[in-house]
Design brief:
about 325 residues, 11 helices, Endonuclease Iii, domain 2, alpha+beta, about 15% strand, binds iron/sulfur cluster, Nucleoside Triphosphate Pyrophosphohydrolase
Length: about 325
């Protein structure tokens, strides 16, 4: 949860997650939807799915206890070298290194090497590690990087290992480690249909007379797999929706690690004439072989679906728009 996210932000998510899934068994027994909902708002949903798969493996293969052997830890979904090292050393006292970005910077400076390979870093960290307190050692190295040996203005005067620092002696601290040129991330735009079923006899129209909106489920693999979203404008015909375009809402920008997405939501009123089929029950997904699962729901109930952050923002824009717009008396 803490990767790319600050501790203060994570705490409420962490507490909520532990309340829902207090042990491996409860996580292993949860549905995909429950897991995605529990993770909602944290992004990087692949981690939630990996944790879910890990829980099942831990229950099926390891008797409900996380294995202590770093090699077995490494075999679990989503557990890489760093995570295996951090969990192995901190939770189980194994003398294995845990090299994150902070540790890479500290070691690069201590060794006075511009661009050390992962193998070199691992070997050096393994050589330095305190076999009696490997967890404390790894955490200390991470903390040193986070608080003293910071990227731009390291406090070398206050550094506990300044006497042994190669870069400090050589006057090369500012050049260590060598910064890799940032790759330009591609930008993509998506036209999003915020379907509003506000015709009294339209599909998805709530029994309470409130307008409902349409969600579709993303495919089970790939980016944001299995999560819900507002449909693409171009997909409406395939979903059997005939719409009357309404106003545009504000664009929503979201930065993924590998691309920068701009969502351009536009209100689409379901055409009363197209309201031939009966309304699908709100929140109950329906599936046809050709179309993705869809669900109609009241805009106030969108938080019952696992919606990625950008889609939650579109939902908020929809609620604002509905609040500011008198109900259409169509049909
Ligand atoms: S002396 Fe400076 S550069 Fe070297 S490890 Fe300490 S803080 Fe980092």
């Amino acid at each position: 949860m803490l990767q790319q996210t600050r501790v203060e932000t994570v705490i409420p998510y962490y507490r909520r997650w532990l309340a829902s899934f207090p042990d491996w068994e409860s996580l292993a027994g949860a549905t995909d939807d429950e897991v995605l909902l529990g993770w909602k708002g944290l992004g990087y949903y692949g981690r939630a799915r990996n944790l879910h798969r890990t829980a099942k493996i831990v229950c099926e293969r390891f008797g409900g206890r996380l294995p202590e052997d770093p090699r077995e830890l490494r075999s679990l979904p989503g557990v890489g070298e760093y995570t295996a090292g951090a969990v192995g050393s901190i939770a189980f006292g194994s003398a294995v290194p845990a090299v994150d970005g902070n540790v890479r910077r500290v070691l690069s400076r201590l060794l006075d090497v511009g661009d050390p390979t992962p193998t070199r870093l691992r070997d050096e960290a393994a050589r330095l590690i305190d076999p009696d307190r490997p967890g404390d050692f790894n955490e200390a190295l991470m903390e040193l990087g986070a608080t003293v040996c910071t990227p731009r203005s390291p406090r070398c005067g206050a550094c506990p290992v300044g006497d042994e620092c190669g870069a400090l002696a050589a006057g090369t601290v500012a050049e260590r480690p060598v910064r890799n040129a940032r790759k330009r991330v591609p930008r993509v735009e998506y036209a999003v249909a915020v379907v509003v079923a506000d015709a009294p006899d339209g599909p998805g129209h709530g029994r309470d007379g409130a307008p409902h909106t349409l969600l579709v489920r993303r495919p089970p693999t790939g980016l944001l797999a299995g999560m819900w979203e507002f449909p693409a404008l171009t997909a409406l015909a395939d979903l059997g929706i005939t719409g009357i375009p309404g106003p545009r809402l504000d664009p929503v920008v979201h930065a993924f690690t590998h691309l920068r997405a701009t969502y351009r939501p536009v209100i689409v009123h379901v055409a009363p004439a197209a309201a031939k089929r009966p309304p699908a029950a709100a929140k109950r997904p329906s599936t046809t072989p050709a179309a993705p699962p869809t669900a109609w729901t009241h805009p106030d109930h969108l938080d019952e679906f696992a919606l990625p952050v950008a889609q939650q923002k579109i939902g908020a824009l929809l609620r604002d728009w509905l609040r500011d717009t008198p109900r259409r008396a169509s049909g």
